[in-house]
Amino acid sequence: xxxxxxxxxxxxxxxxxxxxxxxxxxxxxxxALHAYPDSARWAKRLFKQCGVKTRYTCExxxxxxxDSCRYFSLAANHLVPTxxxxxxxxxxxxxxxxxxxxxxxxxxxxxxxxxxTHLITVSCTGQFLPGLxxxxxxxxxxxxxVNRIPLNFLGCAAGLKAICLSKELxxxxxxxxxxxxxxxxxxxxxxxxxxxxxxFGASFFGDGASACVVASSMAGSRPASFELGTSHSVLLxxxxxxxxxxxxxxxxxxxxxxxxxxxxxxxxxxxxxxxQGSDALPSLWAIHPGGKGIIDVLEEVxxxxxxxxxxxxxxxxxxxxxxxATILFVLDEMRKQLIxxxxxxxxGIALAFGPGLTCEMIQISYIPAxxxxxxxxxxxxxx
Length: 383
What we know:
The protein is of the alpha+beta class. The chain is about 40% helix and about 25% strand. It contains 11 helices and 13 strands. Strands 5-4-6-7-1-8-13-12-11 form a 9-stranded mixed sheet, with helices on both faces. It has a two-stranded antiparallel ribbon with strand order 2-3. It has a two-stranded antiparallel sheet with strand order 9-10. Helix 2 (about 35-50) runs parallel beside helix 6, helix 7 packs across helix 8 and helix 9 (about 305-320) packs across helix 10 (about 325-340). The longest helix is centred in the first third of the chain and has 27 residues, at about 85-110. About 50% of the residues are buried.
């Protein structure tokens, strides 16, 4: 057996305590925009059509009525939270939720925290130093010598970038065991605005954390896993201004072009062909739900059925787009679906998009728990 084959052998997810119901949130935002009827109508349409029903937030003020919500209200007497205030909230809230996701991933993998050799932390919605990585070392009981690799401010594709990086680490050292922890508190960056771009972002981003353990596919007893195959990263030409995330005085300023699904239709099939080569199209599609339009266009181009896009749509509906954390929510949902269906080994692809416009993709193979155990037994027999 090839001991350098790596796999996601444990996954954990977590969300904050406060849930945003999409209908209620749209109503509160519309009330805040009552003096701007065109923007209010646009917001209602966006909230209804974006594919989200619920999201989670770490900020209880976002559940307040429109006249007392500092993130929505355009009233002159309301002090909009500054970037400094938002970063203070991020520092306070990010560590506990990241810790919960990481604990679940370690338990799921049946790997002890002392065995972790590399810690990759991912976030683009907040920063502080000493960072999330240093605090998690202490909270999780990781070794002080663990190799810490923070991936900051890379956007929605960074969670998958971390998975691809972990595969390369294990190729160089088959004893490596990598813990990836992503946390994104996107709702902290909602701002009072009548601009369509700002309303678009406010309509479907949510807060969440996810984690996984990546190790050799032979690394001990475990539940169903995803083996990692060939990866591919590409920066699409002429698309740098289509997805922009900059630091402003009142949070981070996000711009998402409505042309992104069209650009994915134009450029991504060639990139998937480069990754797949002569291989048949995959059965599993772990699509980062950066928006409903992204899932729709890939479903149309590749004639995917509702079961194939189901995990991505389910996560978008229940949690919204949680930036880099979302892809592991999708893989966790996909694994549950495959386990419930008693699926055999199945090939697939995971892909995510981020500012640049960049695309990260990797081949995956679902390995049922029984098959994992049999592979270990066979490996021991012929050792």
